[in-house]
Amino acid sequence: MQKNFDELIDSYIDNKVGLAENFLSKSLSGHLIENLKQLYNSGKLKSAGTGNDTEVVHDKLFRSDVIYWLDRKHNDPYENDFFDLLDSFVNYLNSTCYTGITGYEFHYTLYPEGSFYKKHLDQFRNNNSRKYSMIMYLNADWKISDGGELCITQLDHLQTISPQNGKAVFFKSNEMEHEVLVTNKPRMSITGWLKC
Ligand code: OGA
Ligand code: NI
C-alpha cells in the first residue's frame, strides 16, 4: 500500500500530476465496478452539473457524465474498503507532506459512450475548500481506440492519461486545467477531492 502512496506522491512532486498505476487492487476495483453498474442500471446516477450546490447548471455541452456520491452511511462493504484506503492515504499524505487535509468527498462517475468534460478547474469560484483532485479509474481492458483520455494542461505541454483500471491521478484542484476527451465506450471512475 505504502508503495502505491509513494508512487502517487513522488510523481506529484516531480511533475505536478501524481500517477499510481495500481492504486486500487484488482479485487477492490472489481467490486466497485459491480457497484457502479448496479447503481447505473437502477437509475441512481444523475447528471452532475457545474458550479457549487447553490448554483448548479446542467450543461450537457460542457459535461455529460453522471454521478453518485459514496457514503459510509450506505454500509456497503466495498465503499467502506475504499474509504479505509483513502483514510490511510490521507494520513500518509498529511504526515509526510504536512498537507493538513481534514476531509474529502468522492463520487462514482460514468461517462456514457460519446460523452466528455470540457476544459475546467476543479475549484469553485466562491469556495476554495477543494485542495487536491483525485480520480481512480474502473475500466478493465481499456484500449487507446476507446478514447476518453484525461488531458491535463502543463506549462509547456498537454499530458494525456488513459483511464486504465486501478490507476489513480492526483493534482492540485485550483492549478491544473484539464478536460476529458470524448469516450468511445462507457468510462467509469471514482472522482473526488481532498479538502481543508
Ligand atoms: C472531474 C474530472 C477527470 C477524469 O470530474 O472534475 O475532471 O479523468 N474528471 O474523469
Ligand atoms: Ni475536473
Descriptive terms for the model:
196 residues; alpha+beta; 26% helix; binds nickel (II) ion
The oligomeric state is single chain
CATH class: Mainly Beta
Strand order of the largest sheet: 1-9-6-11-4-3-2
> What's the rounded overall pLDDT mean?
93
Strand coverage percent: 25-35%
Description:
It is a single chain. By secondary structure, this protein is of the alpha+beta class. It has one domain (about 1-195): q2cbj1_9rhob like domain (Jelly Rolls, Sandwich). Helices cover about 25% and strands about 30% of the residues. It contains three helices and eleven strands; from the N terminus they run αβαββαββββββββ. The strands form two sheets. It has a seven-stranded antiparallel β-sheet with strand order 1-9-6-11-4-3-2. A four-stranded antiparallel β-sheet has the order 5-10-7-8, with no helix packed on it. A hairpin with a 4-residue loop joins strand 7 (about 150-155) and strand 8. The two termini are about 25 Å apart. The model has no long low-confidence stretch (mean pLDDT about 95). Bound molecules: N-oxalylglycine and nickel (II) ion. The site of N-oxalylglycine (OGA) has 9 residues, from strand 10 and strand 11.
Helix/strand layout:
Layout: H1 2-15, E1 18-20, H2 26-41, E2 46-47, E3 66-69, H3 77-97, E4 103-111, E5 117-120, E6 130-137, E7 150-153, E8 158-161, E9 168-172, E10 178-180, E11 187-195
Antiparallel strand pairs: 1-9, 2-3, 3-4, 4-11, 5-10, 6-9, 6-11, 7-8, 7-10
Helix pairs in contact: 2-3
